[in-house]
């Protein structure tokens, strides 16, 4: 038979565990929203940067080509045309690399958040392997955990924050445990 102190301790541990799970779940939901919004912002900014780089490179390319054509011969203008194309390709490659790096960073962050959530889940399962976890599981299997948690068995009543026994005409009652 469990003493009131052990029962109170089990209930306290269960309450703290449930509260911890709720808090970490809320943190995960908040982190998930932040990660999603960050990913959307990075994608939008990367696309806009690539678009602007191409536009600026095209503008620069055309202006350079027109000025050189008027000042120099056709062969020099062709050389500048090839050079500006290479610059555009390098700028596009640079922005694609930056965008890809940001996507990888987001994937790593998402994996980390997912791992931390999964790690917490493993810790709650490992609690069941402790002495207190085993006792709580025994009470649950015997159908006594809810009655203990809510102080609902005959011969027991709530006084303040405690569940205390009292004699009844039929005798004193307790909780069934499997041993």
Largest sheet: 2 strands, antiparallel
- Poorly predicted runs: none
Question: How many helical stretches?
Answer: 4
The level of helicity is over 70%
Please tell me what the overall shape is. Answer: rod-shaped
Mean pLDDT: 80
Class derived from helix and strand content: mainly alpha
Oligomer: single chain
- The number of E-state strands comes to 2
The largest sheet has its strands arranged as: 1-2
Proportion of beta-strand residues: under 5%
String of helices and strands = HHHHEE
State the end-to-end CA separation. 10 Å
Radius of gyration based on Cα positions? 34 Å
Tally the structural domains: 1
Structure, described:
The chain has 179 residues and is mostly helical. The protein has one domain (4-129). 78% of the residues lie in helices and 4% in strands. The protein has a two-stranded antiparallel sheet with strand order 1-2. Strand 1 (156-159) and strand 2 (162-165) form a beta hairpin. Helix 1 (4-71) packs antiparallel against helix 2 (74-127). The longest helix is centred in the N-terminal third of the chain and has 68 residues, at 4-71. 4% of the residues are buried.
Main traits of this protein?
179 residues, mainly alpha, 78% helix
How are the SSEs ordered, and which strands pair?
Elements: H1 4-71, H2 74-127, H3 131-141, H4 145-150, E1 156-159, E2 162-165
Antiparallel strand pairs: 1-2
Quick synopsis:
The chain is mainly α and 179 residues long. It has helices at 4-71, 74-127, 131-141, 145-150, and strands spanning 156-159, 162-165. It has one domain (4-129).
